[in-house]
Specification:
This protein is an all-alpha fold. The chain has one domain. It is 76% helix and 0% strand. Helix 1 packs antiparallel against helix 2. It is elongated.
């Protein structure tokens, strides 16, 4: 039981770190010159999906705002 609790703590910490890093990249992501709008939107959607996989709940309206 102690080992399971320890493993859960380790993976929770890793998940929180990955969630933080992904949200940081997403919030700072900007479209650069020469980069297509389609690729930009797909990249943003990819970050949003990754956060969803990490159990980070994001409001739909915020997701749309981030893409726009």
């Amino acid at each position: 039981m102690i080992m399971i609790m320890h493993l859960k703590e380790l993976f929770d910490a890793a998940s929180k770190t990955e969630t933080y890093e992904t949200s940081k990249v997403l919030s700072r992501y900007k479209m650069t010159n020469g980069f297509s709008k389609n690729n930009h939107v797909l990249k943003i959607i990819g970050y949003i999906k990754k956060l969803g996989q990490l159990s980070f709940v994001m409001d739909h309206e915020l997701s749309v705002d981030l893409v726009l």
